[in-house]
Automatic annotation (TrEMBL):
<dbReference type="InterPro" id="IPR036850">
    <property type="entry name" value="NDK-like_dom_sf"/>
</dbReference>
<dbReference type="Pfam" id="PF00334">
    <property type="entry name" value="NDK"/>
</dbReference>
<feature type="binding site">
    <location>
        <position position="118"/>
    </location>
    <ligand>
        <name>ATP</name>
    </ligand>
</feature>
<keyword id="KW-0067">ATP-binding</keyword>
<feature type="active site" description="Pros-phosphohistidine intermediate">
    <location>
        <position position="121"/>
    </location>
</feature>
<keyword id="KW-0546">Nucleotide metabolism</keyword>
<dbReference type="GO" id="GO:0005758">
    <property type="term" value="C:mitochondrial intermembrane space"/>
</dbReference>
<feature type="binding site">
    <location>
        <position position="97"/>
    </location>
    <ligand>
        <name>ATP</name>
    </ligand>
</feature>
<keyword id="KW-0460">Magnesium</keyword>
<dbReference type="GO" id="GO:0006241">
    <property type="term" value="P:CTP biosynthetic process"/>
</dbReference>
<comment type="similarity">
    <text>Belongs to the NDK family.</text>
</comment>
<keyword id="KW-0418">Kinase</keyword>
<dbReference type="InterPro" id="IPR034907">
    <property type="entry name" value="NDK-like_dom"/>
</dbReference>
<feature type="binding site">
    <location>
        <position position="108"/>
    </location>
    <ligand>
        <name>ATP</name>
    </ligand>
</feature>
<keyword id="KW-0808">Transferase</keyword>
<dbReference type="InterPro" id="IPR001564">
    <property type="entry name" value="Nucleoside_diP_kinase"/>
</dbReference>
<keyword id="KW-0479">Metal-binding</keyword>
């Protein structure tokens, strides 16, 4: 439908510590309650090549090797969520990178204790979201489906 054309998508991932700590349901619940629509989801043991592409901007950082080990340490739940302004709104829901700075009410501000175990990833811009979605998902893994709550969420 024409309405799908004005929707935006983002990549969200529950990191290995979030999966281990049984936070997957809580995190999905928050995105569902906000009204975003789930378009793709899978449990993955992330390949090193995917992680090095995903975090290529951070290669020179001192914490980079530890970051790749952390992200390889267990399964990740990768998701694509759709909705108006979903990139900006999901970053606000996730909160500051450092849980010590993250506001209460955010996912990191409510559920996390340390910057090196911050439970969740969300794309930080529309352009980055496009790249990350195509890195983590094939086209066939993304499902377009009709929302029955659209007019109540958006008044259009
Ligand atoms: P973001 O996840 O909020 O977008 P980025 O700056 O893109 O934050 O960093 C990516 C990830 O790298 C963070 O979520 C965190 O897991 C890790 N990271 C960032 N800065 C540090 C640090 O100073 N120490 C340890 N890990 C870090
Ligand atoms: Mg980032």
């Amino acid at each position: 439908s024409g309405l799908l054309g004005i929707q935006e998508r983002t990549l969200v991932a529950v990191k290995p510590d979030g999966v281990q700590r049984r936070l997957v349901g809580e995190i999905i619940h928050r995105f569902e309650q906000r009204g975003f629509q789930l378009i793709g989801m899978k449990l993955v043991q992330a390949p090193k090549e995917v992680l090095s592409e995903h975090y290529h901007d951070l290669q020179e950082k001192p914490f980079y090797p530890a970051l790749i080990n952390y992200m390889s340490s267990g399964p990740i739940v990768a998701m694509v969520w759709e909705g108006h302004n979903v990139v900006r709104m999901s970053r606000a829901m996730v909160g500051d990178t450092n849980p010590a700075e993250a506001r209460p009410g955010t996912i990191r501000g409510d559920l996390c204790a340390h910057i090196s175990r911050n439970a969740i990833h969300a794309s930080d811009s529309f352009e980055v979201a496009k790249k990350e979605i195509s890195l983590w998902f094939s086209d066939q893994e993304l499902i377009e489906w009709q929302s029955c709550i659209h007019s109540n969420l958006y008044n259009m």
